[in-house]
């Protein structure tokens, strides 16, 4: 241990040096205390905010019930509120702790999996004697298979931890239990994955799952299921954040949005919230989609998500994206939207004028089908050789026809849409990594359209974002050819022990069974 210096024996220079060292030490300690105070204040602020939100949700859940909702809606809302409560409690725990076109073929029925157990049911004639009096001989058989289903089977894992004791020193040793995504809970990750997939992929509300489990002989309260869903939503957030970071490293992204009804606790009506979807292109080395649940369709929502990203954004003509185009983001138009304008006219009145436009655009898509397997540079070259002459012909045709049709007509509006966005619609010619349209991300929006008819609404921003998180992982797993239920099960097993720096290894495009 260092002895304190004898100040009487120090020279003036040594005293000055000692004073400077003490000043530096005091300054460093003061800075550390100030940073700690700021950190404590931030944690306390976050804790107060979560506590207030939790109190409001509990008051809504256990207070006077709204008479403006029917029983089915009320059951859905209560489950969503229970999920929110569980998610907030989990966060409070953290805060408290410091091809080419081919001929259409007739679809062929897929064979049933060979590993399924099979029960043989024999159908034989009651009498094998022929009417002529002879005995008939069996010469073969026809076999057909039908798929049967029995209610799901539950099983129990018994984790037996042996106690080992030393009689001399009275020490006790037990093997630790592996960390679990819900500590001290009864569900395995397999059961949690089943609940999440049923709710968010199969669009089965928790009260229906409760009924299914009861028919299988297992009683699990809806509030318990909601608690599991809420906690899983919190634990899976780092995976979604990591996927977002990797998507924002890509030079080209798709974007689209769709409305979802949202009900604020305590109110008797819904209003429009929006799910924004951002996806890598099919030409990208990283495949995935991230859903972002937001309270509005304001352009600020998109700018908040994209933040400092500056690349090429494939999107429709929605004005909310325009502000980003003034800050370095390059707009890529969607040829499918332009085609849709002409197609709607053709369907409505069989317009001969727009038929030529549809034919030009059809040729462009036939070329794209031939370029799918090529490299970006090869794709760019082929587009300039084959697609650009057609694009130029279409442009001249649009300009000529626009002068012939009256202002304000539906045909004029369809032509004007393409002419107004011509630069954005044709930028794909100069970059082989850019797709011709935004159809890819629109396909990723469809699960939300299916879910809306079953969920009826999102209970809050928190429950909406939780749905967005889980559906991000489910849909990204599908895009990467993975079984989403098996993926969720395995990543939830590995997530509690995975270091933060290694989270990206669990993403669907990196994950291996």
Secondary structure: elements and pairs:
Layout: H1 12-62, H2 71-96, E1 164-165, E2 172-173, H3 189-200, H4 206-215, H5 222-235, H6 237-247, E3 252-262, E4 271-280, E5 289-294, H7 299-306, E6 312-314, H8 322-325, E7 330-332, H9 335-349, H10 352-370, H11 376-404, H12 410-420, H13 422-426, H14 439-455, H15 461-479, H16 484-494
Characterise the protein shown here.
The protein has 513 residues and is α/β, with parallel strands linked by helices. Helices cover 51% and strands 7% of the residues. The strands form two sheets. A five-stranded mixed beta sheet has the order 5-4-3-6-7. Strand 6, helix 8 and strand 7 (330-332) form a beta-alpha-beta unit. It is flat and about 115 Å long. The two termini are 55 Å apart.
Short recap of the structure:
Helices cover 51% and strands 7% of the residues.
Query: How would you sum up the major sheet?
Result: 5 strands, mixed
Percent strand equals: 5-15%
Give the % helix.
Answer: 40-55%
Poorly predicted tracts of residues:
64-69, 97-104
> Order of strands across the biggest sheet?
5-4-3-6-7
Distinctive features:
alpha/beta, 5-stranded mixed β-sheet, two-stranded antiparallel ribbon, 16 helices, 7 strands
């Amino acid at each position: 241990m260092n002895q304190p210096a004898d100040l009487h024996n120090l020279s003036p220079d040594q005293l000055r040096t000692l004073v400077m060292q003490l000043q530096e030490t005091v300054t460093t300690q003061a800075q550390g205390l100030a940073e700690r105070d700021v950190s404590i204040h931030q944690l306390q602020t976050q804790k107060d905010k979560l506590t207030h939100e939790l109190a409001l949700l509990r008051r809504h859940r256990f207070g006077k019930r709204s008479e403006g909702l029917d029983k089915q809606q009320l059951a859905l809302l209560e489950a969503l509120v229970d999920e929110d409560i569980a998610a907030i409690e989990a966060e409070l725990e953290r805060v408290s702790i410091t091809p080419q076109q081919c001929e259409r073929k007739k679809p062929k029925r897929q064979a049933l999996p060979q590993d399924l157990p099979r029960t043989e049911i024999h159908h034989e004639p009651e009498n094998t004697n022929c009417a002529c009096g002879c005995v008939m001989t069996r010469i073969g058989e026809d076999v057909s298979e039908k798929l049967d289903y029995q209610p799901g089977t539950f099983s129990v894992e018994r984790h037996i931890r042996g106690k080992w004791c030393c009689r001399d020193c009275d020490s006790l040793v037990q093997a630790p239990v592996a960390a679990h995504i819900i500590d001290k809970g009864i569900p395995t990750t397999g059961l949690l994955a089943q609940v999440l997939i049923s709710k968010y992929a199969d669009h089965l509300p928790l009260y229906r799952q409760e009924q299914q489990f009861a028919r299988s002989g297992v009683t699990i309260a809806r509030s318990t299921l909601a608690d599991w869903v809420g906690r899983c939503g919190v634990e899976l957030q780092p995976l979604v954040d990591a996927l977002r970071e990797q998507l924002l490293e890509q030079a080209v992204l798709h974007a689209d949005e769709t409305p979802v009804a949202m009900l604020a606790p305590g109110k008797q009506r819904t209003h429009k919230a929006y799910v924004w979807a951002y996806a890598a292109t099919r030409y990208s080395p990283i495949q995935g989609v991230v859903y972002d649940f937001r309270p509005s369709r304001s352009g600020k929502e998109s700018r908040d998500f994209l933040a400092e990203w500056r690349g090429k954004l494939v999107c429709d003509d929605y004005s909310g994206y325009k502000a980003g185009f003034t800050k370095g983001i390059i707009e890529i138009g969607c040829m499918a939207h332009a085609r849709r304008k002409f197609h709607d006219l053709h369907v409505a009145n069989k317009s001969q004028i727009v038929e030529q436009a549809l034919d030009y655009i059809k040729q462009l898509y036939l070329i794209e089908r031939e370029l799918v397997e090529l490299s970006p540079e090869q794709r760019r070259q082929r587009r300039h050789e084959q697609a650009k002459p057609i694009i130029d012909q279409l442009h001249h045709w649009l300009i000529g026809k626009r002068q012939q049709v009256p202002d304000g007509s539906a045909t004029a509006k369809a032509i004007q849409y393409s002419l107004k966005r011509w630069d954005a619609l044709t930028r794909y010619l100069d970059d082989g990594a850019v797709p011709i349209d935004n159809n890819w991300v629109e396909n990723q929006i469809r699960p939300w359209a299916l879910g809306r008819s079953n969920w009826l609404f999102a209970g809050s921003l928190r429950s909406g974002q939780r749905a967005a998180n889980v559906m991000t992982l489910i849909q990204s797993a599908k895009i990467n050819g993975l079984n989403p239920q098996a993926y969720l099960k395995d990543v939830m097993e590995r997530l509690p022990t995975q270091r933060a720096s290694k989270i990206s290894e669990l993403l669907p495009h990196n994950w291996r069974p």
